[in-house]
UniProtKB/TrEMBL annotation:
It comes from the Bacteria. Residues 6-186 form the Ketoreductase domain. InterPro entries: Acetoacetyl-CoA_reductase, KR_dom, NAD(P)-bd_dom_sf, Sc_DH/Rdtase_CS, SDR, SDR_fam. One of its GO terms (molecular function) is acetoacetyl-CoA reductase activity. Belongs to the short-chain dehydrogenases/reductases (SDR) family. Its EC number is 1.1.1.36. The keyword Oxidoreductase applies. Keywords: Oxidoreductase. This is Acetoacetyl-CoA reductase. The gene is phbB. It is an enzyme of class 1 (oxidoreductase).
Amino acid sequence: MTTTQRIAVVTGGTGGLGEAVCRRLADDSFSVVAMHSPENLQVAAWLETQQILGYRFTAVEVDVSRFDACVAAVESIHKQHGPVSVLVNNAGITRDAGFRKMTPQAWDSVLRTNLDSMFNMSKQVIEDMLSLGWGRIINISSVNGQRGAFGQANYAASKAGIHGFTKSLALEFASKHITVNTISPGYLRTRMVEKVPPNVLQERILPEIPVGRLGEPAEVAELVAYLASERAAFVTGANLAINGGQHMY
Ligand code: CAA
């Protein structure tokens, strides 16, 4: 099968990391579907900007925290494009607060969006991959799922859960030429990290990063492209850290 026929779906595809991933996969001749949340009202403008830059993406709305919404959204992708070869489960949110201030809503929305989404989306594409006899599922976790983070009990729990999911799917589908991997990025130059209070970022987080800077989304997208390629056929069930040395294990 040639890469020109392959469909890649990226959740959270219009965000900082998602956009870089969409572009990098398009550079590798994937036909890319960028999924975005219903709250995102800037999609038309985003698509236009990408087109000016030479990228032609399809955008599809989905609330990844809801199974029924994922069923409907991926049905529309099947109708328009056909079976999905690559799924990048990238959509994620933060609702940071110290544990004493963390509300049940903040816990629930982060767990539903960051962790339930893995199940909700992977279920929609696994039969495609089995029928194609080839597939890649790439789950975006976080350095904070590996080490925990002050004010992120919800986020760290959701991101730690992702790798258990990855390992189980990797075992179940390894013999079918479907690989399933986790990437755990550190702090990247994205809107999500821009929400961290500037003093916390400067005084507590940046000094922890030996490389001395935030990561670039394109640096993580490079790793996604590798995992999505033929070259990575022997990599499955891995959790690949890309964090500037902030956490080594
Ligand atoms: N480490 C240790 N102590 C910390 C701390 C930290 N990172 N952050 C805050 N504290 C301390 C404060 O110094 C303060 O101590 P005192 O009471 O002794 O003065 C106490 O905790 C309370 O601090 P705040 O008044 O700031 O508490 P808050 O409830 O208003 O805010 C917070 C706490 C929400 C955790 C805020 O500090 C914050 O937003 N921190 C950043 C969290 C973070 O790293 N988020 C990552 C987002 S990006 C991402 O998640 C992407 C990815 O995958 C990496």
